[in-house]
Amino acid sequence: MLEAEFDQFAREYQEQHAASIRLSGENPDFFARYKIDDVAATLRRAGVKPRRILDFGAGVGNSLGHM
User: Fold this and answer.
1) Which string of b and e fits 15-38 if b means at least 16 CB within 10 Å?
2) How far apart are the first and last CA of the chain?
């Protein structure tokens, strides 16, 4: 995939994601932060202290800034 193709996909993804959560009244950044906070709380409750976390899956890296 050419870089320009990925950039186009990333823009479309952001727009589609924002549209899909619009009724919640929140923006994509809210949910990115929520997911990181939820994982952190789950790990704390389990007594797990990871040295590294790999962010993988669908998306364009919205969670990275919250890690």
Assistant:
1) eebeeeeeeeeeebeeebeeebee
2) 28
Residue 27 CA to residue 20 CA, distance in Å, equals 10
Helices (H), the chain: 3-21, 28-45
Predicted confidence (pLDDT) per residue in 3-24, tens digit: 677 777 888 888 899 999 999 9
- Per-residue pLDDT reduced to its tens digit, 34-46: 999 999 999 999 9
Token couple for 21: 């959560």
- Give the pLDDT of residue 63: 87
Structure tokens belonging to residue 43: 């790990």
Are the C-beta atoms of residues 32 and 63 closer than 8 Å to each other? yes
